[in-house]
Write a structure and sequence with these properties.
Elements (H helix, E strand, L loop, with lengths): L1 H8 L15 E2 L9 H10 L19 H14 L11 E4 L2 H12 L5 E5 L6 H6 L5 E5 L11 H14 L4 E7 L11 H14 L2 E5 L34 E6 L12 E5 L2 H8 L9 H12 L1 H29 L2 E2 L8 E5 L12 H14 L2 E2 L1 E2 L10 E5 L4 H18 L1
Parallel strand pairs: 1-11, 3-4, 3-5, 5-6, 6-7
Antiparallel strand pairs: 2-8, 7-8, 9-10, 10-13, 12-13
The structure holds pyridoxal-5'-phosphate.
């Protein structure tokens, strides 16, 4: 894994139109690449006023009061909280990844399960499984639109099947906006899934890390984002079963800052999580940077607007490139940094005995042509041949990545 990461992400291997034109174009990792310099410029223009106290242990591993207050204010404003989020109900850690690890350890016992949609964010199984030994239980849509309220039945079926297999389901992950599909769940569907969780006394984990990355598309029917925090959910789900996750990595283009938060009104869960955060403590200097960004409300507003405009423009460009090349993709996507792309016509029998093998071979051929895209096999896709294409890049990078992708597809014909 470490070797693969440095082969794809290492400084000296990555494409730069001026600095490394022969480098690998990574249109597989979900980062807000086009906004990274905006963060760097913010830091350059501001005297962050580091003092000696910013390099001590601070208030401890739960997140300083100032950070939690700034985050609570940001969430209340941008997620339109129905019941205001209080700083005391927030816990911080070194990213949502760490939160998932801790939630696995606190919400279940080894061998218990978590319900995950298909396809699914690639790291959920490891985040919950590696240390906490929580099993991913993937929910196949079996032809049901997974964004429609009817999808609750498929979760019911998966739960029943898991029971028969001796797996006790502890939680359902609602990744909204969805990674990798780039779509938002309508409120009706969120409510149907809340009722389902409440009925079975399982926890709903709402991962809303892409919430402020909903951009304009030509498809006016695309669903707009609704946060679980934005309406009175108490008649659908006991608040003790509802938990919200957010972080600096996506909307705010700070994947390397390592800072995420959990919001919960469940005091027992908060106590249990607080007892293990010392293993996932966010650095004080990281906190300080996040505080400066979050407290500058005018800058954040402008930053999010610019980010959405850039996402709209780069998504428009890749959609055009795909339309011209006759590649199918998800027209309903309007959120996140990616499109779900159907490359199944380019899977070839010469590449293996089954579709998943062919998909892996196609991925390797792309890598040989210096372009990386994450395949569906790594994201619990229901059928082989789908890829998540990340478009949050500048135009030169996207065009180069696309040129190499098309070259690989041509070689398949
Ligand atoms: C849906 C989702 N949740 C969480 C994460 C990871 O968040 P963090 O960087 O805060 O650990 C990612 C990263 O790709 C993601 O796509």
């Amino acid at each position: 894994m470490r070797d693969l990461a440095s082969a794809i992400l290492g400084d000296n291997v990555m494409f730069g139109s001026e600095t490394n034109p022969e480098g690998l174009v990574n249109i597989g990792t979900a980062e807000n690449y086009s906004m990274l310099d905006e963060v760097a410029n913010f830091i350059k223009l501001h005297d962050l006023g580091f003092k000696g106290v910013d390099f001590n242990y601070g208030e401890g591993p739960w997140g300083s009061t100032r950070l939690r207050k700034a985050m609570a204010k940001y969430i209340n404003k941008h997620f339109h909280s129905y019941v205001p989020v209080e700083a005391d109900d927030l816990l911080s850690a070194s990213g949502c990844t760490s939160m998932f690890n801790m939630l696995g350890l606190t919400l279940g016992d080894p061998g218990d399960g978590i319900l995950l949609s298909r396809p699914s964010y690639t790291a959920f199984p490891t985040d919950f499984g590696l240390m906490a030994k929580i099993k991913p239980v993937f929910v196949s849509s079996n032809g049901v639109d997974q964004f429609s309220p009817e999808v609750a039945h498929t979760y019911e079926d998966a739960l029943e099947k898991a029971k028969k297999d001796g797996i006790r389901i502890r939680a359902l992950m609602l990744c909204n906006p969805h990674n990798p599909l780039g779509q938002c769940y309508p409120k009706d569907t969120i409510i149907a899934l809340m009722r389902f969780c409440n009925e079975h006394q399982i926890h709903m984990l709402a991962d809303e890390v892409y919430a402020q990355s909903v951009y304009e598309t030509p498809n006016k029917a695309a669903t707009q984002f609704v946060s679980i925090l934005s309406f009175d959910s108490s008649e659908y789900i006991d608040p003790n079963y509802l938990h919200f996750l957010y972080g600096m990595s996506k909307d705010l283009a700070c994947g390397g800052l390592r800072l995420g938060v959990l919001h919960t009104r469940n005091k027992e869960l908060m106590r249990a999580m607080s007892s293990i955060t010392q293993f996932h403590w966010a650095g004080m200097a990281d906190e300080r940077i996040a505080i400066m960004m979050l407290e500058d409300e005018q800058w954040i507003k402008k930053f999010l607007e610019t980010s959405r405009q850039k996402l709209a423009a780069s998504s428009r460009l890749v959609r055009q490139l795909m339309d011209d090349a006759g590649i199918r993709y998800s027209h309903n996507s309007n959120a996140g940094f990616f499109l779900w792309v159907d490359l199944s016509p380019w899977l070839k029998e010469k590449d293996g005995e089954d579709g998943w093998k062919m998909e892996e071979v196609l991925t390797r051929k792309m890598l040989n042509n210096k372009v990386f895209i994450l395949n569906g096999g790594a994201q619990a896709a229901e059928e082989p041949g789908f890829f998540r294409l990340v478009f949050s890049h500048d135009e030169k990078t996207l065009r180069k990545g696309f040129e190499r992708l098309l070259k690989t597809l041509k070689e398949q014909e």
